[in-house]
Amino acid sequence: MAAMAMVDQTTSLSLVAAARALRDALSGFEPALVSGEDAARAVKELALTEKVCAAARVRAASRAAECGAHREAGYSRPTEWMARATGTTAGQARRDLELAAVLDDHPETKVALEQGEVSLAEADEIVKTDQACPGTEHEMLGVVRRRGLRAAKEKGRRLRQGAIDIEELEQRRLEARELRTWTDELGMVCLSARMLPVAGARFLSRLEAETEREWKRGNRQSSYEQRAHDAFVTMLEGKGRGSTTRPELVVVWNLKNDTAHIPGLGPISTRSARDLARKAVVSVVLHDGVKVERIVRYSRSVPREVRTLLEMGDPPDFDGPVCVDCGGRFAWQRDHADPLANGGPTSHENLKPRCPPCHRAKTERDREAGLLGGKAKGEGRDPP
Fold this sequence. Notes:
384 residues; alpha+beta; 9 strands; 53% helix; 12% strand
């Protein structure tokens, strides 16, 4: 036992010495003195090292908490001690310690975390989902490796929602609804809300329609967030028009298992879907899990099948549109994959959702490739 304790102490001292040596090396690093290629290589290696260090840190903190080291440092709770040591909040420290406590129950994630393949946030998403939906660890780890944290959060959210009975889920949502307001140091009124899916979907539909009108009115020097603010004020003043006052929603209904959900937000009960169809302008997409059976539009306007299909997202999840380049949600625009100027059709297959920055970048690439009717970059004009 004494020999083992001596080995453990030697390992700990070696780790501390290595960490100090790394800090010394990093403190003298000057990016302006290296090439762009070397800087990119440094980013990759430092990111990997950072994840490995974070994994070792939370495991060490968990062990220190077990031994009561926080009390020796003058803290009554380990979360307070860890928050102080890491410069984070007590809430984040608590989540990190909770993750470290259950890592042994998720061996794949533990190995990936120790090797720097996943970050603490990614590991937390994997573990949280596997705890709610046992047996999903490998699947979630694959999503993280292929597509990163954002996709893992989306996948985890869907899996966790699907593991809860729809009536229980709606009751939880009812209890979790809230709207908070406060004033910041500039005297700005700030809002934070958790809205029920039906109410939230109707609100987002109205807000996005009016924000788009802000752009059409010429308000193009402002950021999207600033235009959304102006659109929200317009809505509050009752000046919105068209779909701003009559929101259009999409509800996806699976005929095979009789379930419904709002793309991008999650499942709702079929009772809520029926109520929604009586109260709002709704397109109900009926499918059997493989193909779309039909689209029923509850409104007096002309059906817009192609637009509805885009708003659904891709099967089989039909979870709403995401930018095909960066994966971002909302504020998306319809973009012709094969440009209209190049003869591309206006069809569901050729229309792709892209956020404004990615849309502009794609347009520039098309222009440089000569697909917009002009000459390609670096080339002369085509002969008549």
